[in-house]
Design a protein that fits this description.
Largest sheet: 7 strands, mixed
Mean pLDDT: 97
Number of strands: 18
Shape: globular
Helix content: 25-40%
Bound molecules: pyridoxal-5'-phosphate
Strand content: 15-25%
């Protein structure tokens, strides 16, 4: 049996940092990443045979838990029929119909292979539809690694951003404005100064890439109003929240709080693929008609709508559309959050938590933060101690304090109780 340490050494010889996506490298928390050998239900086992209760769920997709028999059966059957055709299939229609049924703001949807691809394409579509170049995003929101979206805030309000990554030309970043999340004043100023050139506002409605931060209802309402007044599109990046916080995504949560509310373009990923590479973007018919082959906005993909991935996604959506699925998932998640809250109070640890459906976040802060700057006031040394104390007890949470967590339908009350017990011990070590 190979040890995690040995595998990590070997990996680093042939893969940059030993990983194929940076956060997996444990750089933020230190230590050796666990190399996963297999997973079942709520558990993953590493290369050394150690079991972990998994609260990452492949960063969101594994909402049913790992290895659901119906999903595996659909995937196996689809694979037998062919791995890829590069020609249309009936299952793509079925998946598109299943997605549109739950997300009524979209009339049409295009399937792609990753959230990055979906976000990048949504941006091109928004620019092509409006004939404008400028885009507005918010600090702490991640929309995949397309050049125009890897931009950090400029200094001062309503200024243009700087590239976050080497290799992104300043000329690309200069079309991206970055504002603090939940800041209505900054939003109003940005529209006042640049409203006429804005193609879209792109937002994670419940941000999951700065841990878990909700857009406030007044802020979301103002985003919608200002987009309408200035002819910009509101793009909801629901790659994480779609089919995760509720069957209808975060937009269904805000529609209950803001009558008539809906975004113009929606970006999906993660859960809709059920663990296989699949993502999507969709919108009203007049917007989607701008897309090739109907319109002038080009977008394509060799593996888009892949027959095995669509089988996985379709079966996943069928199973999570059963009545009561999300009520149960939300109850489980809340049970965990309440247990952690109580354990923190007992230990005298400053702590706050929030959740929606099967997505959750907690902070070593007395109050829930409202933006990225506040999230980053969290004590990272304490988080790292907590992370390793949990990992040592077989509880696997995201290896960075700015990541959300996920509960699946496979997590039992016993798993959640065991997690709360582990947290009690971990809090004692802070
Ligand atoms: C994960 C994520 C993405 C990127 O999706 P990939 O499939 O990793 O490219 C984009 N937006 C949000 C909100 C995400 O959580």
């Amino acid at each position: 049996m190979s040890s995690n340490v040995h595998l990590f050494e070997r990996a680093q010889q042939v893969i940059p940092g030993g990983v194929n996506s940076p956060v997996r490298a444990f750089r933020a928390v230190g230590g050796t990443p666990r190399f996963i050998a297999r997973a079942q239900g709520a558990y993953m086992w590493d290369a050394e045979g150690r079991r972990y209760i998994d609260y990452i769920g492949s960063w969101g997709p594994m909402i049913l838990g790992h290895g659901h028999p119906k999903v595996l059966e659909a995937v196996a059957k689809a694979a037998q029929d062919g791995l890829s055709f590069g020609a249309p299939t009936e299952r793509e229609i079925e998946l598109a119909e299943a997605i549109l049924k739950q997300v009524p703001s979209m009339d049409m949807v295009r399937l792609v292979s990753s959230g990055t691809e979906a976000g990048m394409s949504a941006l091109r579509l928004a620019r092509g539809y409006t004939g404008r170049n400028t885009i507005l995003k918010f600090e702490g929101c991640y929309h995949g690694h397309a050049d125009a979206l890897l931009v950090k805030a400029g200094s001062g309000l309503a200024t243009f951003g700087h590239p976050t990554s080497a290799g992104v030309p300043a000329e690309v970043a200069q079309h991206t404005m970055v504002l603090p999340y939940n800041d209505i004043e900054a939003l109003e100023l940005a529209f006042k100064q640049h409203g006429a050139s804005l193609a879209c506002v792109m937002i994670e409605p419940i941000a999951g890439n700065m841990n878990f931060v909700r857009a406030s209802v007044p802020f979301m309402k103002r985003c919608r109003e200002l987009c309408d007044q200035h002819g910009a599109l509101l793009v909801f990046d629901e790659v994480m929240t779609g089919f995760r916080v509720a069957l209808g995504g975060a937009q269904s949560v805000y529609a209950k709080l803001i009558p008539g509310f809906k975004p113009d373009i929606t970006v999906l990923g993660k859960v809709i693929g059920g663990g296989m590479p699949l993502a999507a973007f969709g919108a009203r018919r007049d917007i989607m008609h701008k897309l090739a082959p109907l319109g002038p906005v080009y977008q394509a993909g060799t593996l888009s709508g892949n027959p095995v991935a669509t089988a996985c996604g379709l079966t996943t959506l069928e199973l999570i559309s059963q009545p009561g699925f999300f009520d149960q998932l939300a109850q489980r998640t809340q049970r965990l959050m309440h247990g952690l809250d109580a354990a923190a109070v007992q230990a005298g640890v400053a702590f706050s938590s929030d959740s929606q459906g099967g997505m959750m976040g907690f902070f070593l802060l007395p109050q829930l933060p409202q933006n990225y700057t506040q999230v980053m006031t969290s004590n990272s040394a304490h988080f790292n101690t907590l992370f390793h104390a949990l990992l040592d007890q077989g509880v696997y949470i995201a290896p960075a304090l700015y990541e959300a967590g996920f509960v699946s339908a496979a997590h039992t009350d016993a798993d959640i109780d065991a997690t709360i017990e582990a947290a009690k011990k971990a809090f004692a070590s802070l």
